Amino acid sequence: MRFSTVILITLLVHLQIHAQDEFFHEIELRHEVYDGEKWALDITGNWKNLYEEEAGWRRWGANATLNRKFGEWSIIGGFAGFFTFNSEIDNFFELRPHIAVRFNLPLLDRLSVAQRLRTEWRSFLYTQGETENESYQRLRYRIGTLYTLAESEEEGTAWRVWGNIEWFFLRDPALGERFPSSREYALRFIREFRNGNELGLGYKLENFFDNPNQEGNTGHIIILEFRF
């Protein structure tokens, strides 16, 4: 819970000190196809929208991940695809295979810490304009806490809060992408229902750079997600 509070304070500070702001909303649907003792498979659909008069864009996405469990450790592999479009930009597809190692550490009955180290290969394929196709590799590290605020065993429901910080590491800047010093902060409130489905509402703050010589932009993202 303290970790989530620190994240919330950090978000508020960033809102005050960053002038170059962009605003998004993101909607995500995730379906657990299979969840067993050793293996898990899920499929996710995603919609993201940037609100900007001059160069706003929209993005459809889908992601499939396969999780091999080893107790508190997991090895995760997957493949994601996206299509980003608008009349003011060069529309493009993105292909993103990825692999990760995750470690979950239960601290208390209601509190656990999760860490994830992930590498991904990103290929941008432009469908119009003169922008050249581009590919590169990116490394990501995330640490977060999951805290159960309230839980009813009789009703089979629960309220939880998830807070995390993630760092993105790039060899060098890529077109329209983050610079190596980028960071992401997120805070979500999750409602678990009797049937095991989950509804989440959250806020994500991104610090990113279009190139290394300019002041970093700040992205504010409202997230709505449903897991079933």
What does this structure look like?
- It is a single chain.
- The chain is mainly β and about 230 residues long.
- It has one domain: Lipocalin (Beta Barrel), CATH 2.40.128.
- About 5% of the residues lie in helices and about 65% in strands.
- It contains one helix and eleven strands; from the N terminus they run αβββββββββββ.
- Strands 1-2-3-4-5-6-7-8-9-10-11 form an eleven-stranded mixed β-barrel.
- A hairpin with a 4-residue loop joins strand 7 (about 135-150) and strand 8 (about 155-170).
- It is globular and about 60 Å long.
- It starts with a helix and ends with a strand.
- This is DUF2490 domain-containing protein.
Quickly list its features.
single chain, 228 residues, mainly beta, Lipocalin, globular
Kindly report the spatial arrangement of strands forming the biggest sheet: 1-2-3-4-5-6-7-8-9-10-11
Order of helices and strands: HEEEEEEEEEEE
Secondary structure class reads mainly beta
End-to-end C-alpha gap: 26 Å
Q: Uncertain runs with pLDDT below 50, 5 residues or more? A: none
- Helical content (DSSP H or I, runs of 4+): under 10%
How is the CATH topology named?
Lipocalin
SS element count, helices: 1
Radius of gyration: 18 Å
The general outline is globular
Q: Compute the number of strand runs.
A: 11
Q: Report on the biggest sheet.
A: 11 strands, mixed, barrel
Organism: Flagellimonas hymeniacidonis
Protein name: DUF2490 domain-containing protein
Annotate the secondary structure layout:
Layout: H1 2-17, E1 21-35, E2 39-51, E3 58-70, E4 73-85, E5 92-106, E6 111-126, E7 134-152, E8 157-169, E9 183-192, E10 198-208, E11 217-227
Parallel strand pairs: 1-11
Antiparallel strand pairs: 1-2, 2-3, 3-4, 4-5, 5-6, 6-7, 7-8, 8-9, 9-10, 10-11
Protein name: DUF2490 domain-containing protein
Organism: Flagellimonas hymeniacidonis
